[in-house]
Write a structure and sequence with these properties.
The protein is α/β, with parallel strands linked by helices and 304 residues long. The chain contains ten helices and twelve strands.
Length: 304
C-alpha cells in the first residue's frame, strides 16, 4: 500500500516515519508539512519525497498517515477519504464532535479503511490484556489514570505543542484512558468531570454494563509523580495493568499499519474515534458547567 505522511513534527519523526519506512507492506511515497523545509528534512531522513501540496500527495497514494494537531487532521482526513484514500489517524481524531463526525461520515461514505492509533490497543501484549479483562466481565469499577509530565519534565519533545497546551491532559491522554476502559466496561452513558491542579481533569463515567470508572488526566504532573495506573475491581478481585507490558510506540504503530493494509475492519476505526471525541467533549462541557456555577456563586456572594 502506497502511503503518504501528513505532518513533520516530533511524532512524525519518532514514530510514523520509522514505522512507514520499515514496514514490509507499506511503500513510503512522500511527506507533506506546513513548513516546506521541515518536509524536506523528514523526507531526506527516510529516503522519500517532500511534497509542497497536501492534495498532490493525497492524489499519489493509496493511504495517508496523519501526524498533525487534531484541528488540522480532521479536514485533511475528510479530504483523503473523499479521494478514496485509506486513513491512519492519530488520537484524538478531532477536538469537536462536528469535526470527528465529519471524518467518520466521510470514511463511511467512501468505503475506505480507517484506523485510529490508540497506542495501547496496537501493542500485542497490552491488547491481549485488555481482551482478557473484557472476556472476564462482571467488573464493578475501573480506574485509568494518566499522570504525564509533558510540561513539567525536562526536554519533552511534545512540550512545544500549542494544541496540547490549550487542550491539556483531557484531550491528549484522555483518549488513552478511554481506549482501555470502553472495551472492558462498555459504552458510556453518563459523564461528569472536575478540575484539579494545573491542567488536571478528574473524569467520572457510568458505563452501560453498570460499572463506573474514574480517570485522572494531566500533562502537568510533577515528574516524580508521573506514571500510568490502570485498575479493575469486581467479583474476580482486583486486577492492575502489569508494569512493562507496553512496548515501543514504533512497534505498536507498525501493527496499526498492518491493520489498515489487511483490509479487515478494526475496532479502533473512525467511528470509535468519534465516540471518544463525544465523551471527551461531554467531559469538557461538564467542566464548563461547573465553572459557570462557581462564577454565579461568586457573583451572588459579591452582591450579598
Amino acid at each position: 500500500m502506497r502511503f503518504g505522511l501528513l505532518g513533520t513534527g516530533p511524532w512524525a519523526r519518532l514514530a510514523h516515519g520509522p514505522a512507514l519506512a520499515a514496514h514490509p507492506e507499506a511503500e513510503f511515497v512522500g511527506v507533506w508539512g506546513r513548513r516546506p523545509e521541515a518536509a524536506a528534512e523528514v523526507a531526506a531522513r527516510f529516503g522519500t519525497r517532500a511534497y509542497g501540496d497536501a492534495e498532490a500527495l493525497i492524489a499519489d497514494v493509496d493511504a495517508v498517515a496523519v501526524a498533525l494537531p487534531p484541528h488540522l487532521q480532521a479536514p485533511l482526513a475528510v479530504a483523503a477519504a473523499r479521494a478514496g484514500r485509506h486513513v491512519l489517524l492519530d488520537k484524538p481524531v478531532a477536538t469537536t464532535v462536528e469535526d470527528a463526525r465529519a471524518v467518520a461520515e466521510a470514511v463511511t461514505a467512501a468505503g475506505v479503511g480507517s484506523v485510529v492509533f490508540f497506542t495501547l490497543r496496537f501493542d500485542p501484549a497490552t491488547a491481549g490484556w485488555i481482551k482478557q479483562q473484557a472476556a472476564r466481565g462482571a467488573w464493578y469499577t475501573g480506574r485509568a489514570d494518566w499522570y504525564s509530565a509533558v510540561f513539567t519534565g525536562d526536554e519533552n519533545p511534545f512540550a512545544d505543542s500549542p494544541w496540547r497546551r490549550e487542550k491539556g491532559g483531557l484531550w491528549d491522554v484522555g483518549p488513552h484512558a478511554l481506549s482501555v476502559l470502553l472495551p472492558v466496561l462498555g459504552d458510556v452513558t453518563a459523564v461528569t468531570a472536575a478540575n484539579g491542579p494545573g491542567d488536571t481533569v478528574h473524569m467520572t463515567l457510568r458505563h452501560d454494563s453498570g460499572a463506573s470508572s474514574t480517570s485522572a488526566l494531566t500533562l502537568t504532573a510533577p515528574p516524580a509523580a508521573a506514571g500510568v495506573v490502570i485498575e479493575l475491581r469486581g467479583d474476580q478481585g482486583v486486577v492492575t495493568y502489569p508494569d512493562g507490558v507496553a512496548g515501543e510506540a514504533t512497534d505498536s504503530l507498525a501493527h496499526a499499519i498492518t491493520a489498515l493494509t489487511s483490509g479487515t475492519p478494526h475496532a479502533c476505526d473512525a467511528r470509535f474515534g468519534l465516540r471518544v471525541t463525544e465523551i471527551l467533549a461531554a467531559a469538557e462541557s461538564a467542566l464548563a458547567q461547573v465553572l459557570a456555577q462557581d462564577l454565579a456563586k461568586d457573583l451572588t456572594q459579591d452582591l450579598a
